[in-house]
Design a protein that fits this description.
With 415 residues, this protein is an alpha/beta fold. It is 32% helix and 13% strand. The radius of gyration is 22 Å and the shape is globular.
């Protein structure tokens, strides 16, 4: 008997809500809903705990330089205020972007990029897997939550005529945030989805005689492929002048742009970029962290430019499980910390601003004497996006055991 694990491993495709898929796809495949524009959320996970203090640099805080003698990013004024590959990019006279994030500067200046600093999990874990689970379920401290926060959104706000591609993750496995009863797809690539799921071997593998639920999934995949063919994805080209970097992350974003432009009914998308666990040789303006940030900013900026006017309907959110220690360690890196920085990007974003109350980096202001203290619960940011962008007011269903309320929103999105 074919198992669900075998399906995930050998097709490069993952599906949530397997039992619901055949009728779901049968309904969706009747028409192309693409003529109707939808609000879209793209969630980007920086797995490994990014160093928010070197991503969005508090260059106005003297303690930052004292605690990071070899990896701190120089303040803009130290270079006469001009652009330099060695200095951070001044945002407001106190915060600056890491120089590898220079592609973001124009988007910030246009008012389409916002930052929330000192945000994160109200839980003291510094374990990657636990923190990632808490972040993706939006239930910090609770390990038994069955569904992710994005799946709970999909379940609590069902759509009539939704398509197989309402929720898509780029990867071979569904992320925790999209696991749950609502159907969702994960694909390592659109081409692989079409080739592997559409191969005759799959039909033989899951054809008549396969009475278990996996047969239904295989049948559903063929329905999904037929749907993609009607969308004419083969004719997709990035907008003139847009060139995506040659990296797996950027390729994931390119394919999400492909799905959005094809109007396949995408509402929630997920992609991720690893390599943020910089315990050793983190680097400052150049080095390990800078390389990750260049991939992140160049890929996202290409997506932003490629989508053009469609960004009026898109919010892109970045997240990481926790931040890093304020002080660098003896290995020229940083260890697991607490609060971090989030990015929000898109037409609906009230950008050009760093949000959140800055807690300070003096010894008495640090969390447990070593980390950036948290002043914004990440669920307040998530809830504002769910309510004001995706139009889901059932916040108690999406964020159980948390008093999500518009009173706690930061005003990150335009009315």
């Amino acid at each position: 008997m074919m198992t669900r694990r075998f399906l995930l491993k050998n097709t490069g495709i993952a599906v949530a809500g397997l039992g619901m898929i055949p009728p779901f796809l049968a309904r969706a495949a009747v028409t192309n809903p693409g003529r109707r524009r939808r609000k879209i959320l793209i969630a980007i996970f920086q797995r490994g705990a990014a160093d928010g203090l070197n991503v969005v640099v508090p260059f106005g805080e003297r303690a930052y330089y004292y605690l990071r003698p070899s990896i701190a990013i120089a303040a803009p004024k130290w270079a006469g205020g001009g652009a330099s590959p060695e200095t951070c990019i001044d945002l407001d006279g106190f915060f600056g972007l890491h120089p590898a994030l220079r592609p973001f500067q124009a988007i910030y200046d246009q008012g389409h990029l916002a930052i929330v600093h000192a945000a994160g999990l109200p839980d003291n874990t510094r374990a990657h897997f636990a923190a990632q689970d808490f972040l993706e379920t939006a239930t910090p401290g609770v390990k038994s939550t069955p569904a992710g926060w994005l799946n709970r959104h999909l379940s609590s706000k069902p759509r009539r005529n939704s398509t197989p591609f309402r929720a898509v993750a780029m990867g071979t496995m569904l992320p925790r945030s999209l696991c749950g009863p609502a159907p969702a797809l994960a694909m390592s690539s659109i081409e692989e989805f079409q080739v592997r799921a559409g191969a005759q071997g799959l039909q033989a593998m899951y054809g008549p005689g396969g009475a278990d639920i996996v047969y239904g999934a295989g049948r559903g995949m063929r329905e999904a492929i037929a749907f993609l063919k009607r969308a004419n994805l083969e004719r997709y080209q990035p907008a003139p002048g847009v060139e995506y970097p040659c990296s797996p992350f950027a390729n994931s974003l390119r394919q999400l742009a492909q799905l959005i432009k094809a109007d396949v009914g995408l509402e929630v998308a997920f992609a991720e970029l690893g390599g943020w666990d910089t315990h050793v040789n983190q680097g400052g303006a150049a080095g390990q962290l800078a390389s990750r940030l260049a991939d992140l900013s160049q890929g996202i900026t290409a997506l932003y430019r490629d989508l053009g006017e469609r960004m009026a309907d898109v919010v892109l959110l970045t997240m990481s499980e926790f931040g890093r220690t304020v002080a660098e360690n003896p290995n020229g890196g940083t260890d697991h910390g607490h609060a971090n920085a989030l990015f929000l990007l898109g037409g609906p974003v009230r950008g050009g601003k760093v949000y959140g109350r800055w807690p300070g980096l003096a010894p008495e202001q640090l969390y447990e004497g070593r980390d950036l203290a948290l002043t914004t619960d990440f669920r307040d940011v998530f809830a504002e996006i769910i309510a004001r962008h995706l139009g889901n007011t059932s916040l108690e269903a999406v964020f159980p055991a948390f008093a999500a309320s518009p009173r706690n929103f930061r005003g990150l999105l335009k009315a």
